[in-house]
Amino acid sequence: MNADAIQRFFVTLRDANPQPASELEYSSVFELLAAVLLSAQATDVSVNKATRRLFPIANTPARIVALGVEGVEAHIRTIGLFRNKAKNLVATARILLEQHGGQVPRSREALEALPGVGRKTANVVLNVAWGEPTCAVDTHIFRVGNRTGLAPGRTPYEVEMKLLARIPAEFAKDAHHWLILHGRYVCQARKPRCQACAVADCCDFQPKTTAS
Ligand code: SF4
């Protein structure tokens, strides 16, 4: 995908959805961090169902620590890997209390030092909470980046670096959401919906799929 196609690709996605947002439900930076931590290998829909049970009871580091691992588990057991996620969430909450005054830190280094928080989760928090132009490469973005020719790479990190280098600055803050939503609803894993794709003329993927 050349620079002209990349520009048209993002103009089209922006025109269709000028203010994209995360589909995870949250009302504070800590809730966002917790929801993203719980979302590894789980759908946003399943995480929202669990956090609708968990957050009314515990939505601050102090309340999560007070609830404890078993208490958290009881509210999130419908999500995959819930035991490990409960353990990480409580450990993360404890570190926030002990080292960050109960606040979610704004630096990548401090975020990635939290249990269960890797580069992808840190990127989401930096982008969604503070508007930083990061690009968290999840399964959807990895696929779209490779399939379209926008940011081919063998690893999520390679794709992320290409995206950061190739996405024009005016789209950098929202690109992460546009790419996830495009991958989730149009450029789907098993069969991309090329016949219904608004950016088909910018995309290198061949042959394009048809409705049949
Ligand atoms: S044309 Fe097809 S492969 Fe390309 S972005 Fe659209 S859905 Fe994905």
From TrEMBL:
[4Fe-4S] cluster binds at C187, C194, C197, C203. Keywords: 4Fe-4S, DNA damage, DNA repair, DNA-binding, Endonuclease, Glycosidase, Hydrolase, Iron, Iron-sulfur, Lyase, Metal-binding, Nuclease. CDD domains: ENDO3c (cd00056). It is an enzyme of class 4 (lyase). Residues 38-185 form the HhH-GPD domain. Its cofactor is [4Fe-4S] cluster. GO terms for biological process: base-excision repair, AP site formation. SMART domains: ENDO3c. InterPro entries: DNA_glycosylase, Endonuclease-III-like_CS2, Endouclease-III_FeS-bd_BS, HhH-GPD_domain, HhH_base_excis_C, HhH_motif, Nth. Pfam families: HHH, HhH-GPD. The keyword Iron-sulfur applies. It catalyses: 2'-deoxyribonucleotide-(2'-deoxyribose 5'-phosphate)-2'-deoxyribonucleotide-DNA = a 3'-end 2'-deoxyribonucleotide-(2,3-dehydro-2,3-deoxyribose 5'-phosphate)-DNA + a 5'-end 5'-phospho-2'-deoxyribonucleoside-DNA + H(+). Belongs to the Nth/MutY family. DNA repair enzyme that has both DNA N-glycosylase activity and AP-lyase activity. The DNA N-glycosylase activity releases various damaged pyrimidines from DNA by cleaving the N-glycosidic bond, leaving an AP (apurinic/apyrimidinic) site. The AP-lyase activity cleaves the phosphodiester bond 3' to the AP site by a beta-elimination, leaving a 3'-terminal unsaturated sugar and a product with a terminal 5'-phosphate. This is Endonuclease III. It comes from Sphaerotilus natans subsp. natans DSM 6575.
